Structures are given as structure tokens and as C-alpha cells.
Amino acid sequence: MVLAVVVIAATSIYFVHPWQAAKPATATTQVKRPPVLRGGDFARYQFMNLSLGWAVQITPGSGSSGPYSVFRTVDGAKHWQRVLSGETTQIGTTSESLHFVDAQNGFVVAGDPLAVYRSTDAGAHWARRELPMADALMVRFSDRSYGWLVAGPTGVPKARLRLYGTADGGSTWKQLPDPPLDFEFTTEFRRPSEGWSGAAARDRAYVYLSTDAGLTWQRRDLPQTGDLPEVGFLTMVRLLPGSGVVAYVFAEAQGPLHAYTSFDAGTTWSPVSWPESPGDGGSFFFEDATHWWMFQQLVLYKTVDSGRSWFPFAVRTSAAPIQVQVLDSVHAWGQIDDGAGVQLVTTSDGGLHWTPMNVPIVQ
Prior knowledge:
The protein is mainly beta. The chain has one domain (12-357): YVTN repeat-like/Quinoprotein amine dehydrogenase (Methylamine Dehydrogenase, Chain H, 7 Propeller), CATH 2.130.10. 1% of the residues lie in helices and 42% in strands. The protein has one helix spanning 12-16; strands at residues 25-26, 42-47, 53-58, 65-73, 81-89, 98-100, 106-110, 115-119, 127-130, 136-141, 147-151, 162-166, 174-175, 183-191, 194-201, 206-210, 218-221, 233-239, 245-251, 258-262, 270-271, 285-286, 292-296, 299-303, 311-315, 322-326, 332-337, 342-347, 355-357. Strands 14, 15, 16, 17, 18, 19, 20 and 21 form an eight-stranded antiparallel β-sheet that branches. A five-stranded mixed β-sheet has the order 1-25-24-23-22, with no helix packed on it. A four-stranded antiparallel β-sheet has the order 2-3-4-5, with no helix packed on it. A hairpin with a 7-residue loop joins strand 4 (65-73) and strand 5 (81-89). The longest helix has 5 residues, at 12-16. The chain is globular. Mean pLDDT is 84; it is low at 1-22.
């Protein structure tokens, strides 16, 4: 897995009473054709603020590997500087390969064989750190020192995964006790004292919680519902900014998608709703633990209560942004694929308008 497994309101009504936005505004479109990624290329961005950001760009190769480049911008995507490049394996799974834990310290998992590249100067320079095995599935860092690695064979049913930890930014790794057999590699750590993982469950849905840096894992059952089959569940988790967690429940047999939030370490769970239907797709983009954004059917919806209720905020006339990173109530970054190329876009009015920005170009 590459690059293993790294988002001014329309009216005063939104600011004063956001839950009362009865009619969403219609967004306008750009007349000038913006810059786009080269056909076939993939990019993942992370912005720390309106100026500082990074991108990892991958060009698919003819086999299981291909070239990658890491770029940095310090002027809000007006200009990009390439700071790291090379060949990487398994370039098809690049969702979370790039991750900065703060404005100075970041990590990229890439290479052939895979390794961790660490920067301590905002991405200007990178140092390579070897991984303890060749079958890494996921690498996550909660801060500049602590990180975890899940390893195991792919495509092997019921194969037990292995878990490793580092306390020195990836310089050394220690194998931890094996996680539960139904443990999923979609593991998230907020800090050494709080880690979460999904599970491949048979008779009911649950997730796992660790409070000791991954040494042990405690099962946390999710609510049972009558509209899902009784056998076969897959769960995954996402951490909310600051505190709280979102757990997703997928049924192996046909059934609706369910999601829940917990703010008490999984003791109790509250259901999350969708603006329209879960079948319409869409991802939650978190402004903070209670304020989220979501696009469904070209409509931008927002919630102020962790997904219990939603109100429409803006309507787009073309493709909706994906991979949105919300910085605050009015500023966000995202990507738009309108069929003619993938654009990097930004908003400064809460998502009403999206302005195309320069994308990094591999020369």
C-alpha cells in the first residue's frame, strides 16, 4: 500500500442562526479554465493554514510501482516546490500517505521498498527511516514521536495482523502484542493513550479501543438495528478534531450504511444522520467535533450538532469538491474533478464559492 495509508458565509443568517438557513444559495462557476493535474496523475494535499501546505503526487507506472513527488507551498498554492521524489511500490492505495502532525513535523510513507520519510522543518528536507517489515498496510503518527504500523498479508482470509510502535519518530520500531484476530488495519491514534480500530465482525458491529499505546484492545459494541442483516459487519472509525470518534457500520449483505458518534470512549453512541439518503454517498468533512460539512447531490450541507441534523448551505452547478479539508468556518481546501481534469480549489466564504488554485506540476 503506498504511500500508505493523508481536507464568510453566504448570508448573515448563517452566522447568527446557522440552523435556520432554509434556502441554500447557488454557487457561481469560474469562466477561466483553471490549471488541472496531468491526465492519470493523482494528488493528495494537506494544508496547515491558508499559506502552508504540502502535496504528494503519483504518476501510475506500468506495473506495481511508479514515480512520486512531494511538493511544498508557502504562499497558498500560488507556487509549489518539489522537495522529495522517487519510485514507490503499490501506488494504487495512496489515501493517507502524507501526514503533518503540526506545521514543522510531517511523514510520508513511500519508496521501493516502502520506508518512512520524516521532515522536521515544514517539509523542506526529509530523512529516510526503514520500516521493520516489507508487508506494511498502514502507518499512522499521532505526534512527532509516536507512531504505529499495521502489517500483514493482503488477500489472505483470517490472516492475523501484526502491530508495531515507535516512540522516536520512526527511527526504531518495537513489535507489540498481536491485535485481535478480527482487527482491521484502518487504525487511528489520537495520542498514545487513545487508539481506535474497526473490526470484521460476524454477529454484531463493534470497534476496538486502546488506552495504552496499542498494547491491549477493548471491544466497544455499537447499537444494534433491525434494518441490517444479523451476520457480517465491517466497521471503521474516524477521529473527530479535539475529542470524539465516528464509527461506520457496513453490512456484508445488502443494507443501509450506519454511523455513530461517541464522546465518552465508546460507552454510549449517538446515531449520525445523512442530509438525504446514505445511498447518495458523500463524506463527512470536520470543521470541529460538532460542525461538519457534507456534499450530497451537488448540495453543500452543514451540521452544528455532530450529524444529528443538517441544513442546506449552498448548491453547486457543476461537480462538487472532494477530499475537502476544512480549516475553519469559512476557509477550506478541496479538489474538483469535472471530467476534464482535477483542480485544486479553495473557499473563503464557507463553501459558497470555490476558487481554482495552481496544482503542483512534475517537470
